[in-house]
UniProtKB/TrEMBL annotation:
Protein origin, superkingdom: Bacteria
InterPro entries: HATPase_C_sf, HATPase_dom, His_kinase_dom, HisK_dim/P_dom, HisK_dim/P_sf, PAS, PAS-like_dom_sf, PAS_fold
Keywords, sorted A to Z: ATP-binding, Coiled coil, Kinase, Membrane, Nucleotide-binding, Phosphoprotein, Transferase, Transmembrane, Transmembrane helix
Occurrences of domain Histidine kinase (ranges): 462-680
Gene3D superfamilies: 1.10.287.130, Histidine kinase-like ATPase, C-terminal domain (3.30.565.10), PAS domain (3.30.450.20)
Stored SMART domains: HATPase_c, HisKA, PAS
Protein name: histidine kinase
Species this protein is from: Thalassospira aquimaris
Length: 682
């Protein structure tokens, strides 16, 4: 954009933009006013109708109260003579008793009372383009219904007056706003024409620079006041800004973003030049939260006296790359990123990294990159970037290093580096602080859980083992009492001795099962196990009860898996024992064992133990696998540890166990399903 040094008016491009914005704002204002007008009128209309209905309902109720006191009173005469309200009285069958109510209104009233059933209310009736507001009040004591109705148009006179007043105010507001917009439009148009006329006094080159968004400024190196000696199109190139920019070198430097200022600090402020000419992408602040991208080229002119610095600014778009590609990469990447040269010096960083670490990161530009990281990680950073600078990075190239954010908190960043390209190494990071903290917490929790499980297993084992000796003593002496004194005492004493003996036996059985449960899962050394042999061992242990109950057991050819032979034998033994124990009276137990590949999860076998016993209700599907849970305490003896032990063994082998709840009620019995991992020989 172009702006002359003698005319303080706006630039041509700014004027065109302002005129477009003025038109858009005017159109938006008209739409908002019209919407507001219709919204207000709709609200006022609804309020007027509601108020009219409420007043009419109150009138009907009041007249009904008067009719209760004087049954022969003429209600129509009570209403104001000039009122448009019509009063009528109906009986419970909606027959005319007093006054006259049009039949179509009586029909509407009958339908409404039948639907709502209210003692008093109001409604609107629409017939032949005429809207009537009707209110009624039922008098059950007199078998009467007082009805009051009036045209809605009569009750909305106040609303019509209000809408006329609001329409006049709306027209006035529209007229004022449109007039003001037209006046501003004409002013901007005259200013635009004036700017066009002024440009004719300048060379064609200056106009070309103006249209390209270019500015030139310069100042003497040894200037004490820093006053600009050249300021073509400066500061008008920025357009309207939120502050006044004066003709000083410091005003230009103050407009630079902190990162751009740190990048140009040596040549433009300290007069330290690596080359006679430099180029860089910079960000100039237009407002507190808005920056504009420019390509800056600066040159030190040593032939002149005094020595001067000349700066050229050129507007760029997001697709342009007018300088080193790493600057464009850093500017547009959404992740915290850095660019490091082969000497390990930080040459640039992304806005995301500055937002994370705060303005302090600007002081690290030109210094060793390890200054970004925590002291404990600096040696790792030095070795990573030193290795990267000597060879081309391939693969992931990831390292997790800690930094301090702007609030002083430690953040874990996973860095991914590539390069070097043209002497520059690029590294971007992902914030993995939450993941690292959660992993540390999980590791700590797992360690605590492992120690707790070990302590609990040791406690259960020791407690179960140590309780055996005193329990044997109690059982032995109670049995001696029964043998020696059984039948010599009274019947009640014999019952007490039987209770003691039975309790000692059940306690011994419970402790034995608890000890077995504590031992289960402690053996992690698996070997190849043929499930057919394991099943045969379980049947051999149950041979007596199988023969006694005439139980039949069929099974498929079972697979070979990796597992604990003793634990798997106990698994089959418990499931077969339960199937025989919970049999139906008079029906010999039949147990079918099938196996198939798991259709849901691959690499697992699915075993099904199906019996024809009394069955388990689906609502107990989860409960039966918990410790000490028994469904038939009175009918069958037990400790409630059998299925809990089965669940522990199956989970030790990486599988799961559950009750088949899809079995129909017409097919009595229970189906227990469990999975074991497939063994694939190496």
């Amino acid at each position: 954009m172009f702006m002359t040094s003698i005319e303080p008016s706006l630039s041509r491009r700014s004027l065109v933009t302002l005129r477009k914005r003025l038109a858009a704002m005017t159109l938006t204002g008209v739409v908002v006013l019209m919407f507001s007008f219709f919204f207000i009128q709709k609200t006022l209309y609804d309020s007027a109708v509601h108020h009219a209905s409420a007043e009419l309902e109150a009138t009907a109720y009041r007249l009904g109260s008067m009719l209760l006191q004087h049954e022969d009173i003429d209600l129509q005469r009570i209403v104001d003579a000039n009122s448009a309200i019509t009063i009528g009285v109906l009986d419970e069958q909606l027959n005319q008793v007093q006054g006259f109510i049009p039949p179509h209104l009586v029909d509407d009233l009958a339908e409404y009372i039948a639907e709502q059933g209210k003692e008093s209310d109001s409604l609107q009736c629409v017939h032949a383009q005429q809207v009537m507001i009707l209110a009624y009040s039922k008098l059950d004591q007199l078998d009467r219904i007082v009805v009051a109705f009036t045209p809605r148009s009569v009750l909305l006179e106040s609303w019509r007056e209000a809408i006329i007043l609001h329409a006049l105010m709306f027209v006035m507001a529209m007229t004022i706003m449109c007039g003001l917009a037209i006046w501003l439009w004409q002013r901007l148009k005259r200013q635009h024409l004036r700017a066009i006329n002024l440009t004719e006094h300048f060379s064609e080159t200056e106009n070309t620079l103006s249209e390209c968004g270019c500015a030139v400024l310069g100042w003497p190196v040894n200037s004490t006041d820093g006053k600009l000696t050249t300021q073509l199109n400066w500061p008008e190139i920025l357009g309207p800004t939120d502050k006044t920019i004066g003709p000083l070198m410091t005003d230009f430097l103050d407009c630079l973003s902190p990162g751009s200022r740190a990048k140009l600090l040596d040549p433009l402020v300290n007069n330290i030049w690596a080359d006679e000419r430099i180029g860089a992408m910079v960000d100039l602040r237009v407002s507190a939260n808005t920056s504009q991208r420019f390509y800056l080229m600066a040159q030190r002119l040593t032939e002149n006296d005094p020595e001067t610095i000349s700066v050229l600014l050129l507007e760029t778009s997001a697709e342009q790359e007018l300088c080193h590609p790493f600057e464009t990469y850093l500017h547009h990447t959404p992740e915290p990123s850095i660019a490091v040269d082969q000497d390990g010096l930080l040459r640039g960083f992304s806005p995301a990294l500055e937002k994370l670490m705060g303005p302090g990161v600007q002081g690290i530009i030109g210094k060793n990159v390890f200054n970004l990281f925590e002291p404990e990680d600096q040696q790792i950073a030095m070795s990573v970037f030193d290795e990267s600078s000597r060879s081309q990075i391939t693969g992931d190239g990831k390292s997790i290093l800690r930094i301090r954010d702007h609030s002083g908190a430690v953040r874990w960043l996973s860095w991914h580096g590539i390069g070097p390209f043209n002497g520059m190494i690029f590294a971007s990071a992902r914030d993995v602080t939450e993941f690292v903290e959660n992993a540390n917490k999980l590791r700590t929790t797992l360690d605590q859980l492992k120690r707790s499980n070990e302590d609990l297993e040791q406690f259960a084992y020791v407690a179960s083992h140590d309780l055996q000796q005193p329990l044997r003593m109690v059982a032995s002496y109670t049995q001696l009492l029964k043998r020696r004194y059984g039948g010599t005492l009274d019947q009640e004493a014999d019952e007490y001795i039987d209770y003691a003996v039975d309790g000692a036996k059940r306690m011994h059985k419970l402790i034995s099962h608890l000890l077995e449960y504590a031992k289960a899962g402690t053996n992690d050394e698996f070997s190849e196990i043929d499930c057919n042999l394991v099943l045969n061992e379980a049947q051999a242990d149950l041979k007596a009860v199988i023969s006694q109950e005439h139980a039949t057991i069929t099974h498929d050819d079972l697979p070979t898996i990796m597992g604990d032979r003793i634990a798997l034998s106990r698994l089959f033994q418990n499931l077969l024992s339960n199937a025989i124990k919970y049999r139906r009276p008079g029906v010999p137990p039949h147990i079918a064992i099938t196996v198939e590949p798991d259709p849901v999860i691959g690499d697992f076998w699915r075993f099904s133990i199906r019996d024809n016993g009394i069955g388990i209700h689906p609502e107990h599907a989860q409960r039966i696998f918990r410790l000490f849970q028994r469904l038939h305490k009175d009918e069958f003896s037990g400790t409630g540890l059998g299925l809990s032990l089965c669940r522990k063994i199956v989970e030790q082998h990486g599988g799961r166990i559950w009750l088949d709840t899809s079995r129909p009620i017409s097919d009595p019995g229970t189906t227990i399903i469990f999975t074991l991992r497939v063994h694939r020989p190496d």
